[in-house]
Specification:
single chain; alpha/beta; five-stranded parallel beta sheet; three-stranded antiparallel beta sheet; 8 strands; 20% strand; globular; binds adenosine monophosphate
């Protein structure tokens, strides 16, 4: 990949992915394609961002289909390393994000963002993108990457891309494939809860506690859904808000059966 990179000229757009592609990933690819002379993706299911009891082994892998889809989007390269290439025997250096990684996903998934930041730093060093594309669906991940780029001085632009949804509002995710038909029918409750909060906010409600209770109440009414966390936080610091007087990030993590789903919206 490094040799290939030396042969490239002009702007390079990179879309980091773990594969099992859906329309969300493909939207990132289209942006990368249209905004750069060279456009590519990485495809790597990164073991260091999964906890010991998480779904690393079960994570959906369909490399043939993914490569066909990347090709259909007109990408110039796909960087697809294996685990031994990214983490050779003796690997012992990590990128440890700070306070931005502690709450929300970081509180539920210890070391998750350390794994994300480490692999993304390596992907940036190897592919040296001009621009890199990240989905707002993973709002905290986006902030962790933006902070890392600032702090470590990566010479690139992080481009946020709005969340792509199914017709019923469910945010597209590779993990949606785990849902049974009954669970799939229950899953739009995440988006419904976020929509209710947005409506209350637009009607003038600013009380963080009330808005969090609205999230809990809406999710609680769905028997198949189990709340991991609900949050109405400062969109920049991710600290919980008493009152939404600054741009707010409304986010939640919910288990449906054994599948953990996340979603968010911004209030401003
Ligand atoms: P993943 O393969 O899940 O690691 O995701 C790769 C990239 O696609 C990340 O930047 C995600 O935020 C982004 N992404 C995943 N789902 C969506 C979606 N529904 N809409 C927009 N971007 C997404």
């Amino acid at each position: 990949m490094q040799e290939e990179r030396h042969r490239m000229s002009g702007s390079v757009g990179l879309v980091p992915t773990m594969g099992a592609l859906h329309e969300g990933h493909l939207t990132l690819c289209r942006r990368a394609r249209s905004e750069n002379q060279v456009a590519g993706a990485s495809l790597f299911v990164n073991p260091t961002q999964f906890g010991p009891n998480e779904d690393f082994n079960a994570y959906p892998r369909n490399y043939k289909r993914d490569l066909d889809l990347f090709q259909q989007e007109g990408l110039d390269f796909v960087f697809m390393p294996n685990v031994e290439q990214m983490y050779p025997t003796g690997f012992d250096t990590y990128v440890q994000p700070g306070a931005i990684a502690e709450r929300l996903e970081g509180a539920s998934r210890p070391d998750h963002f350390k794994g994300v930041a480490t692999v993304v730093a390596k992907l940036f060093l190897v592919t040296q993108p001009t621009r890199t594309y990240f989905g707002e669906k993973d709002a905290q991940q986006l902030r962790v990457i933006q902070q890392m780029v600032r702090d470590l001085g990566f010479d690139l632009q992080v481009v946020p891309v709005p969340t792509v949804r199914e017709a019923d509002g469910l945010a597209m995710s590779s993990r949606n494939a785990y849902l049974s038909p009954e669970q799939r029918a229950a899953a739009p409750v995440l988006h419904r809860a976020l929509t209710r909060v947005r409506e209350a906010y637009l009607a003038g409600e600013r009380d963080g506690g009330y808005l969090r209770a609205l999230l809990r109440g809406t999710i609680g009414a769905e028997p198949l859904a189990d709340i991991d966390y609900v949050s109405v936080a400062d969109s920049r610091t991710l600290k919980e808000l008493e009152r939404v007087e600054v741009p707010g990030l409304v986010s939640l993590a919910v288990r449906i059966g054994r599948t953990r789903l996340i979603d968010n919206i911004t209030l401003e």
